[in-house]
Specification:
The chain has 6 helices and 3 strands. The protein is of the alpha+beta class. The protein has a 3-stranded antiparallel β-sheet, covered by helices on one side. A hairpin with a 2-residue loop joins strand 2 and strand 3.
Length: about 140
């Protein structure tokens, strides 16, 4: 296991329960049993706060840590574009993500890449849970 995955996963700034959330979702990875819950406060189509709770592997924890930091103050439209194209991290169509103009793409690429294809579903669980919460 790569140490950068452990380092990213250890950043638990948004590992919390958001009270009075406007959006919330729970999701489970049927392949491995990882469980994820995301709650958000959205105002004027901008994410004001996000919290997550998970019982999951370190790959899922690293992914949700990065995603939760990126989502703060992001417009729903931009989140929708990013979440719906997240699978491109794992194949040769990575160029599709660059079109979305995500400034922190390199950070995500550290863990979401073809080297971790066997953990693809773990890494995408936070994206799917966020999508479900925002009804994207």
């Amino acid at each position: 296991m790569d140490l950068k995955i452990l380092e990213i996963a250890s950043d638990t700034k948004n590992h919390k329960i958001v009270k009075n959330h406007t959006h919330q979702s729970k999701n489970k990875n049927p392949l491995c049993g990882d469980e994820m819950e995301i709650s958000l406060i959205v105002k004027d189509n901008i994410v004001q706060d996000i919290g997550y709770q998970c019982r999951s592997c370190v790959y899922c924890q690293a992914s949700v840590s990065l995603l939760s930091k990126w989502v703060m103050q992001a417009p729903i439209e931009k989140i929708s574009d990013f979440v719906s194209n997240a699978e491109f991290f794992f194949d040769e169509n990575f160029e599709q993500l660059k079109k979305i103009n995500i400034k922190d793409l390199k950070v995500f690429k550290k863990i979401m890449n073809p080297e971790n294809i066997s953990r693809k579903e773990c890494l995408l669980l936070p994206f799917k849970t966020l999508s479900k919460a925002l009804k994207l």
